[in-house]
Design brief:
Blueprint (H helix, E strand, L loop, with lengths): L2 H15 L8 H15 L4 E6 L7 E4 L5 H10 L4 H6 L11 E4 L9 H9 L4 E9 L2 E10 L7 H20 L7 H28 L3 H14 L4 H11 L6
Antiparallel strand pairs: 1-2, 1-5, 3-4, 4-5
Length: about 240
Amino acid sequence: MSRERELTLADAFVELADTLVDEFDVMDFLQQLSARCCQLLDVAAAAVLLAPPGEELRPVAPLDPGEKLGELLDVAAETGPAFDCHAGRTPDEAAEALRVDLSRDPQERWADFVLLARRAGYTWASALPLRLRGERLGTLLLLRTEEGPLSPTDVRIGQALADAAAIGLVHEQTLRSYRVTGIQLRTALHSRIVIEQAKGVLAARLDVRVDEAFALLRNHARSNGRRLTEVAKEVIDNGLLPVG
């Protein structure tokens, strides 16, 4: 591992541990996890899918997936390696990660996922559990466009990042009640809807691409010390135009 990668990895773990703040923004936290995976691992895309206790698996990050990846993630929440990984269905009980060659249809019931993944240019998919002490909060889905699977080293680093994120999500609440985490995860899912609406509104108003609209939202939130969801609501309700 290069010195630069070691330092970047160290920074990532510090970020994932820094949840004990008054205004913890769970959506920005998960967005950062997704971005760090793309930066540190040999993958073309990384996504987080969450399942609050008693609820179904749903994608929450990245917040700007693009049309093809967004469509794939919607299907991934219902079928495919991320879904099976979250359910604990893995070929090797000793290894919770799934690595799937998308050049073949590994299981008939994955047909929709595999078809969309191939159309989007992905060749391999890896799914890692987002877990804490045996409790599964969701899945980290990693997608490659190169030949061959994700290396064992990258799988271990990806799982370490996923574990650190899971610990970070619940660390503040575990002293009181694990149910509070369920509230936070549900808030993340609802917040994603608000942010998606704001991206569309802003893109239409400013005549820019949706990914550019998201960048404007996030930059405005960070530069003003505000939550991403709060800024998104203001765009929708009050016509805020956070131009760069």
